[in-house]
Fold this sequence. Notes:
Elements: H1 3-21, E1 52-55, E2 58-60, E3 65-66, E4 72-73, E5 84-87, E6 90-92, E7 97-98, E8 104-105, E9 116-120, E10 123-127, E11 132-133, E12 139-140, E13 151-154, E14 157-159, E15 164-165, E16 171-172, E17 183-186, E18 189-191, E19 196-197, E20 203-204
Antiparallel strand pairs: 1-2, 3-4, 5-6, 7-8, 9-10, 11-12, 13-14, 15-16, 17-18, 19-20
Amino acid sequence: MPHSAVLLAVSGAVLALCGVCVARSDAPRGVALGFVFDPKAQCEPQCEHGGICIRNNTCFCSRGYEGETCQFATCYPKCKNGGVCLRPGKCRCQPGYGGRYCHKVTCDGGCWNGGECSAVNGVPRCICPSSWTGARCQEALCPQGCRNGGLCVAPGICSCPDGWLGGACHTAVCALPCLNGGKCIAPGKCRCRPPYSGARCEDKKKSY
Length: 208
């Protein structure tokens, strides 16, 4: 590279450095102003990512890089939650985190039914409303329970199998009503009061 071109490149680098000097404290580091530039300097290994060799084995790094050979990219703000800076302003995030600087907690599959993703002891998990549970808040809660094979399909609401009714699927249904004061205790099954018997309590025991 011609001597004048090198000086021009360094002059531009110095101007860029002035911008770094007034930037925030954890911006990329550079060589302090007033350094001595040696146009014959050699750096082994060579300066990377557009860095300029200003003295033997001393690199002046481009904005966004640092290290002895300008080998490390820098991110501002810094990558959070264990993220790694891949190139200036680009972080690679650990599982469970997202966003440009890995500052957002992310739950695999998302959180349903109003659940919120939060880090609990460093592990992303869904914090569910009181009426929902499960890894993604996908399971409704029925405080009264669902009996006789019923399924909780929404907070406090059971889906009952055929032959059962009620908020907890606790009421049996007999297609044909029980007679003579009998009570339906299971689908199609009556419990009879004496002296009646039969499928529907229709038979009266004869007394002799």
